[in-house]
Amino acid sequence: xxxxxxxxxxxxxxxxxxxxxxxxxxxxxxxxxxxxxxxxxxxxxxxxxxxxxxxxxxxxxxxxxxxxxxxxxxxxxxxxxxxxxxxxxxxxxxxxxxxxxxxxxxxxxxxxxxxxxxxxxxxxxxxxxxxxxxxxxxxxxxxxxxxxxxxxxxxxxxxxxxxxxxxxxxxxxxxxxxxxxxxxxxxxxxxxxxxxxxxxxxxxxxxxxxxxxxxxxxxxxxxxxxxxxxxxxxxxxxxxxxxxxxxxxxxxxxxxxxxxxxxxxxxxxxxxxxxxxxxxxxxxxxxxxxxxxxxxxxxxxxxxxxxxxxxxxxxxxxxxxxxxxxxxxxxxxxxx
Length: 336
Ligand code: 5GP
Ligand code: MN
Description:
single chain, 336 residues, alpha/beta, inorganic pyrophosphatase (n-terminal core), Diaminopimelate Epimerase, Chain A, domain 1, 2 domains, six-stranded parallel beta sheet, six-stranded mixed beta sheet, 12 strands, 18% strand, globular, binds guanosine-5'-monophosphate, binds manganese (II) ion
């Protein structure tokens, strides 16, 4: 774990950069602002360095990230498998951003990538990384993978390749992974990077507006329903949760990203230390879970131990094969 790349890592990166022509950048399933932000930022930077670069994501992004330059060029494995596989086969270099186990891309994409492995870089801020790349830049003390991409680029002296589209993308990742600079992991350095980007022309207000002030009526009503009808609170044991079935999500014609933030709303309650959000998957076979905590309660360990997942100490997620009722039952049992 290091905030700085070693000299030998920089040498490997320089060697890779001299050899690479066509790069595929991957991020994780259910991509969030940092997944898309870090990926598009590196894509723009590599393109400015004269490389061909494309972002491949396992599945759909919330549509409110469409303001990001390059959004329309992203290839989704879930809906455009053939194109994604052609890109993977044709590439001579891979970058893995904002995840550190290949299975976070889903079984099928992960297997295809492994069968067609290329020299690679992994840049990530989650715990317990797998050491599968020639260059592993891994550090849990960074706010976001987007902030790490900035350091990665500066430490390799490609600062001149950072253009406005790359800055918009990195700022998006930093803002979304820190809930607008409020988490303890934010450092003076984070603010310095943002200040540097603002000096170079970054406009922050339109980005906040695009992410947070563009909710559909359905999304707002789903939030209202979830908070007034579905929030379960256990004051004695300091936890709260919301669980939504596929039928309920369909009632509000939900789109990717519509339930983002609900778990934080549950955690925002006075006296609550742990919050969870459960959402049935569309094929009804599993439940996607999100966990958040205040203070020392480690939801990364919790998600790893019981929910086939992981994440950070105060924000983690996982997936349980089974019904919504089973997930709720298990959660209540573990919280006693
Ligand atoms: P969210 O609850 O917003 O989906 O995710 C919170 C954090 O947990 C993110 O850092 C995300 O990468 C991580 N996370 C979410 N779901 C999973 C999962 O199924 N497996 C692992 N390893 N991490 C997850
Ligand atoms: Mn992240």
